[in-house]
Amino acid sequence: MAASVPVSSFNPQRLCHATIATRAVCPKIAHFATNCFADVRIPTMPNQENTARLLPDVAVHAQPHLAGALDWVGMADIQVPVLFDAGDGQPQRASARAGAFVNLKRPDRRGIHMSRLYLRVEQALGTQTLGADMLQALLRGFLESHADLSDRACLSLQFEHLVRRPALKSGNSGWRAYPVSVEASLVGDEFLLEFGTEVVYSSTCPASAALSRQLIQDQFARDFELGQPLEHAAVLAWLGSEKGIVATAHAQRSVARLRVRPASGAGFHLVALIDRVEQALGTPVQTAVKREDEQAFALANGGNLMFCEDAARRIQKALDADTQLGDFHIRVEHQESLHPHDAVAYASKGVAGGYGSVV
After folding, report:
1. Are strands 190-204 and 173-187 parallel, antiparallel or unpaired?
2. Three-class secondary structure of residue 327 per DSSP
3. Is residue 225 one of the residues assigned to a domain?
4. Is 211 a domain residue?
5. 295 part of a folded domain
6. Distance CA 193, CA 160 (A)
7. What is the mean pLDDT of each run of 10 residues along the chain (359 residues)?
8. How far from chain centre, in Å, is Cα 313?
9. Which residues form the domain of 35?
10. Residue 257 maps to which CATH number?
């Protein structure tokens, strides 16, 4: 084994003309060697900057036989936290899935720089509350990082937002998790923002209700003969028996899927939007339910019979009155208990060039 050299005998001047320094690939390392700093500036493991210079980047090499511009390139389902203010002044942190994309306008370039998109998403969404200005700045960052490759950028987010909902009668309450989608795009200087959610409610068929009432009338006629005196107590008891409700209208869980474009400066007024839609429908699904709440829910269903067309028009009328919306798209889906298929209706605000033609 070679003898160790005492530290005191180490002479850095001996390394000034060392051949190992003159063979350095990195210009910075060669500069340090020339200036007699090779002994302290060349680490045993390459640092981050030098490693980046040495690693190959095949994405910059074109494939002429596969040249072509691409509409969108990026990443989907990026796991990231978001801080979302639903308009009630109580921002919530949620776990989101993000999509980050730019176009690739140059057919001679093989790919984009996905890590640049990822790091910008991570930095912005992890530290800032979601908002129009923040999202627009994030998309501008996408394009700035791809100045020679892209002129369009978009971002999508999906997460859930918890809202506490009171019971109809009992004074209890419970949480409802409303799905939220956010989509933002930037094409040149044109920034477009939209968000969406779903409202789940109960729908009772008006036709089925009418048919059920007829059957109840028929049963009443059989049980109380024409010309016989009616006793109040007997009729009241009959109404409270199973004979008094020999048929019931079919009802089903239904979903209103909403996409809206907020007016300039309106922000994400999610809770107000949900409140407006649920009040228009009258039968949103419940959380904590005691018997008095269930009875109140049955009464609400009886007072809000509706086809899918009725539900779509109710929501349309309610959203037309919302000045914070520039446009909206409604998809109402009644998941029929009578049929194996769904009854569906669409509605929009009717803005020229807006959602009207979207299905």
Report:
1. antiparallel
2. strand
3. yes
4. yes
5. yes
6. 18
7. 46 42 38 40 52 68 75 97 93 97 92 95 94 96 95 98 97 97 96 97 97 96 91 94 94 97 91 97 97 97 98 98 95 96 96 82
8. 25
9. 12-55
10. 3.10.270.10
